[in-house]
Design a protein that fits this description.
The chain has helices at 15-30, 34-54, 90-94, 106-113, 142-145, and strands spanning 2-10, 65-73, 76-83, 116-121, 128-135. The protein has 147 residues and is an alpha+beta fold.
Length: 147
């Protein structure tokens, strides 16, 4: 099965649960195991929250929006969150965060919940793209097997 969708969202806190609910609904409909859906939805929430907080307008006057794209293709789900902010440097990515810190743990959490994470510059213009993927597991539903 192959499903993908893309959202163009305003940099507002209310956009984060919208993206999360759409992802959970898509995975539930596709029959993805709830634990995997939960892990990916938390990782997506963290990536969206970072885009809302840090993906601001660039010096060139770029949009105050960000984009979320999700691909469920075969046995893997890939999610990308792209903003138009000032970008992200390797120094920021590798900065250690204390376990009791209230901020700055999102990327660490994404790394723990996903199988592969890539953080880089948006091609062609300012901004950051956080992409992560995870191998999917499927619900065991006997009613689907007896047809």
């Amino acid at each position: 099965m192959s499903i993908w969708w893309s959202l163009h969202l305003r940099r507002e806190a209310a956009s984060v649960p919208l993206a999360r609910r759409l992802l959970i609904g898509t995975m539930e409909t596709a029959g993805v195991d709830p634990e995997i859906s939960y892990d990916l939805s938390v990782a997506l929430s963290e990536a969206c929250a970072n885009a809302v907080e840090h993906g601001g307008t660039t010096a060139t006057g770029a949009s105050e929006a960000y984009r979320v794209t999700a691909y469920l293709d075969g046995e893997k789900c890939r999610i990308e969150v792209a903003d138009s902010g000032p970008g992200f440097t390797r120094t920021q990515e590798l900065r250690p965060v204390r376990p009791d810190a209230e901020h700055g743990r999102g990327l660490c959490l994404i790394r723990e919940l996903a199988d592969h994470v890539h953080i880089g510059a948006k091609p062609g213009r300012g901004g950051t793209v956080v992409s992560f993927d995870k191998i999917l597991k499927w619900k065991k539903d006997p009613s689907l097997l007896t047809a």
